[in-house]
Amino acid sequence: MADLKRKREGGDSEPCAAEKTAIGIIPARHGSTRFPGKPLADIGGKPMIWHTYHNAKKSTRLSKLVVATDDQRIVDVVKDFGGEVFMTDPKWENGTERCLEVMNKLKEEGSSYDIVVNIQGDEPFIEASHIDSVVDVVATSDAVMGSLCRPHIDEADVMSVNNVKVVLDVNQFALYFSRALIPYNKKGAYDPDTKYWRKLGIYSYRADFLPKFIEMPASLLQKSEDLEQNKVIEAGYRIRMGIVNEAVHGVDTPEQLVHLNELIKSGEIKMTNS
Fold this sequence. Notes:
Blueprint lengths: L5 E2 L5 E2 L7 E7 L13 E2 L2 E2 H9 L7 E6 L2 H9 L4 E3 L7 H14 L6 E4 L9 H12 L5 E7 L3 H5 L5 E4 L5 E5 L18 E10 L3 H6 L4 H6 L4 H5 L4 E5 L10 H13 L8
Parallel strand pairs: 3-6, 3-8, 6-7, 9-13
Antiparallel strand pairs: 1-2, 4-5, 8-12, 9-12, 10-11, 10-12
């Protein structure tokens, strides 16, 4: 029988892909500038964080799922529906730092995980299969980070600087992330025959890399594109991408929330949780 363990430097055994454990962490901040109270916004009669949590809970690759927040109102709501939640320091500037605080608290309690998945709290219809995929791209490779991408839809989908594009090698490792149209061509224009990849907003990290990621200084390519993941590639680490064919419905503004509820009311979006 093939050996199910790989050796780390120093001789310690490393679990095979199927044995690697993953934790999903949903950072949820109440004080958003563009959309205050977003995690508690109503979607089809339930708060947004309820939808995100219950859809993420369907993942078969997560050993644990928690919410990380700095607001007692979110703590109370999550506890009320039976979810697990950690109160984190309000000084953190982003969800990745909240994820690390949760990991450190769990480590103090004697729990550890091989992979950390940062699940965006404003994606109430996150697909469990997407979470499984972003776990597996790290579990089955030497990548320190993972994310997802999908085929582009049309020209507008890839021309906007708000939509991040990625180019891949043959093994689905990211070569570069950009707000510009990549790959580019001699014509200097969008080519409908080119396969463009749109990056999605979910990330996974090898647990031992997460502190390094946060501590890494901003790099030239990160600053140029305003894309934090570029500092990882620029430093010589690898990010592997999972490919999916559809995108989930994220909510960035109150206007998008109104539109989403209209789609639910009309039946164009089906509620899978009750």
